[in-house]
Every structure is written in C-alpha cells, then in structure tokens.
Amino acid sequence: xxxxxxxxxxxxxxxxxxxVLHDISLEVNAGEVLCLLGDNGAGKSTVIKTLAGVFxxxxxxxxxxxxxxxxxxxxxxxxxxxxxxxxxxxxxxLMSIGRSFxxxxxxxxxxGPFNIFDRKTANEIAVRAVREFGITRIDDGDRLVGGLSGGxxxxxAIARAVHxxxxxxxxxxxxxxxGVKEAAHVLRIVLQARQRGLxxxxxxxxxxxxxxxxxxFAVLIRGAKAADFKKGEKSREEITDLMAGGEAMAELEAxxxxxxxxxxxxxx
Length: 268
Hints:
- The chain is of the alpha/beta class.
- The chain has a domain of 171 residues: P-loop containing nucleotide triphosphate hydrolases (Rossmann fold).
- Strands 6-9-10-3-11-12 form a six-stranded mixed sheet, with helices on both faces.
- A hairpin with a 2-residue loop joins strand 1 and strand 2.
- The radius of gyration is 21 Å and the shape is globular.
- This is Sugar ABC transporter ATP-binding protein.
- Keywords: ATP-binding, Nucleotide-binding.
C-alpha cells in the first residue's frame, strides 16, 4: 500500500502559555481530497501554517512519503511540493496574468548582455494552464489580474501551483467569498486537481462544498480533532452538529425546549 504523501502525527502547537493545537494526526494520499472542517477559531489556519512551514510544531512529526521532515520555512515546504492557495488566490491585482503566474520564477530571454522578463512565453504558458482548468474566457496574458472574477483568480492560483510542481495543494477557504456559480467552478477545479494525482487539503466551514469534493474529512474543535471519517460515513446534519460542538447544540436545543414550555432558562 502506498504511503501517504503527507502525514501529521500528534502535532501540538503552543504560543507561550497558550495551547493552540492538541495532538493533531492527519494524513492525505495522492489523488485524495481531505476536507478540514471547523468553525472560526477551530485551529484550521494553524494546522495549514504548520504544514506549510510558517510555524514549527511544538511537538509531533510531519512526514512526506514516509520520511520525517522539518521545514525551515515556507520556501522549504514549497520546494518539497507543498503549495498553499489562500482565500483570494494570492494573486496581484495590478499585475498582468502572465506576470502574476510567474512571480518569483520569471522566465527570461537575452537582450544584449541582459536577461529580461520573457513576456510572450509567460503569457502563453499562463493562458494555456488556466484554460486547461476550464477558464476559457481568459485568452490574453496581458490582462490585469484585478479584472478577473474571484473564481478566475482561484483558478489562476491553482493552475500556477500545479504548473510549478505542487504535490500537495492546500486550499484555504477557496469558495468563501464566491457566488454559487463561481464556487461551483472552483469545486470542479478541485476535482480536476485530484484527478491529476495531487493530494488536496480543502479547508472550509461549508459542509455542502466539502461533501461535494471530499474523500476524507476531519473536524477540528478548539484545536483538537473531534472526528475523522471517510465519505459516506456521516450525514450532512451529523457533520454540522460536530462542527457546532455537539454539546453546544444539545444545550441550545434544551434551552429552546425550556422556552417552549414557558420556563426561564438558568444563566450559567
């Protein structure tokens, strides 16, 4: 059996006296979408920043292909094939599509004694890469990124990560600020990335979106893993209840019943 591309074992993270993550263990395989679910403050961002090399775990291990790794920073994680696409795509509104696609790794050509940015090559590659993900409206690499829709920016960022050799694609709330049509297109792109054999970690608080693309799910509550399950093992309602904390939902239901019965709930 193939080893997971990425495996986190008993990851703990604290900042001074504040414990943020508690014994987080996760794994994701090639061609699989792991959905990391949780409400605001659940610890999702800290998990992905630890995996992406922004934070070092206080304890625990990160493995890639069965080998324990220690990232010295985000560039080190990126060099090992871990790419993170944030909510607004991490693109640059005042840059052209071609320039934004290759920022930091610009193709160059000779101009006398100088190496200058090869705009033609960059534009051709960027447009082709984005169109392969179904964004056929983009046909000009000189177009400014700021003129793209939110879904198109996400597609540009994902296409860039794949082109630059990402093996693990971390998507941080990629559909949070999008309309229904654009969100649906981003979800199709996630499925395409899975079909290409990438390991995808999809961070969201939208259960419907998670169930649409996910193979494997983990729910975080207050920095701890509350549940870990495969597709089909839990219903949408069960997942929503888990994300809400289960006990908190039960307390709310009891309070509603007490109001219905004409009782005054006791203050905590």
